[in-house]
Amino acid sequence: MVRKILAERLAKLKKRPTARKKRIRPEDHVATRFGKGWHKRNFLGEVVLPSLFESRRGIHKCEVHFPELTGDQICVTWIGHASFLIQTREYSILIDPNWAKWLKVIKRIRHPGFQIHDLPAIDLVLVTHAHFDHLDRKTLRAVAANQPIVVPKHVGSLVKGLGFHAIHELDIWQSYQYQQLQITLTPAFHWGARMWHDSYRGFGGFIIEYRGRTLFHCGDSAYFEGFKEIGKRYRVDLALLPIGAYDPPTCRDVHMNPEQAIQAFLELGAQKLIPMHYGTFRLGYEPVDEPPLRLIKRANELGIVSQLYLLTEGQPSIF
What we know:
This protein is α/β, with parallel strands linked by helices and 319 residues long. It has one domain (72-318): Ribonuclease Z/Hydroxyacylglutathione hydrolase-like (Metallo-beta-lactamase, Chain A, 4-Layer Sandwich), CATH 3.60.15. The chain has helices at 2-15, 43-52, 137-143, 156-159, 226-233, 258-268, 290-302, and strands spanning 75-80, 83-87, 92-95, 102-103, 106-107, 124-126, 148-152, 166-170, 175-178, 181-186, 205-210, 213-217, 238-242, 272-276, 317-318. A hairpin with a 2-residue loop joins strand 1 (75-80) and strand 2. The N and C termini lie far apart (73 Å).
């Protein structure tokens, strides 16, 4: 009798439709095929191995003093790569925190702006996507202190069990309200798979709204028309845009170059541009010091250099 009941229940379970994670549509992310001519270059020999013998740049164990803020002031401290500490009078927010010295075999060639133990108490953590240079589990475990974390759809499993009391997964244009902060996931033209097969993971950027002011962290993105849509929806005060890794070993169009970042900035209608995603990890063939030079050159040509703010790692800037 018991066997019969178990057999009936098993048969019912087999008939139930299984819940599948929805794959990201090909038109919503960059092409996964390697670009033409990728095999003619040797990224390991030309970029990765030489960087192993470079001394890390920047100041090691830099002492940092975070300022007292008033009113609607926003303090932005670049940690390096796409990692930022964003502070207001009431809150401290970490975006894509990464203190890793290595991305597998890729060496970090600039020290973080300050030591992880010098962080203030963190109220909220945001992660734009699952790539190793943006989602570093060791770093996240170190900064987790029973606070919430916000990630794109299907990325929550990667941060589960690290010490966050709540994991909020957002789809594109969805928002999460944290007291006086509103966090919205914006579209990007990139991809979110941490491993080659998990193409269902979401990705994007974040709009942070605070007391009538708006900060936009792009995450990773190639140039696309979506920046115009973000600019239509939000009045962006501060735009944190990537400018590096535009000559990747795969020859794929996966990141913006400096000129495209300027174009995105103009289409956003943002007030100030803070560049990121350069100088920390050698992820492309371009010379490590080239991205900011090209950015300044293009900004000068367009007469908008006064809207450009190149930050130094570990030095808080008030806006």
